[in-house]
Write the structure tokens for this entry.
Amino acid sequence: MKKYLVEFIGTFFLVLTVGMTVIGCEPNNFLPPLAIGSALMIMVYAGGHVSGGHYNPAVTLAVWLRGRCPSGDVPGYWISQIIGAFAAASLALYLKGNPAITPAEIKIVPALIAELVGTFALCYVVLNVATAKATAGNSNYGLAIGFTVMVMAFALGGISGGAFNPAVATGITIMHIEKSANLWIYLVGDLAGGALAALVFKFVNPADK
């Protein structure tokens, strides 16, 4: 239960940061990606020693496929992450005064590709800096993970919204930042990106079990 609580807390603050910085923000503002990447970095450092600091169902999938997350933990991680996202999105809307929000318009195929690529990058970095034997004990894993989200948000956020995380996608849907009809794009793209990252990691590091 401690692991699930940590996953709830980390996802909560990640999604809360998304809501508080994106809602009401001017288009092309550079502050949300900085804040969101920093929030993830902080929470990874805070909870990584307890739960691994996933805060993302796609990361949990990648770590499970890589062999570093017990199968029995996966449902609990996913449930904790989604509940954390729901709670954070609800609080963000309340703190912002439940504003009228017009969901972003995205194109399905480019958004799907952007989410897959961005999530692949995130999960690939997580697997290499936080689960590989060659990098065991390093102190920069949180910084690398947070910076990956920040960079991908700058690079691809204008195409898909830059979730790279099914829990964040759930949160931005609840907050009406993205259309509920587009939620499947994030679920499919992000989980596919996580699975692909695990396959590539295992191919590149066949002896790292």
The chain has one domain: 2-204. The mean pLDDT is 94.
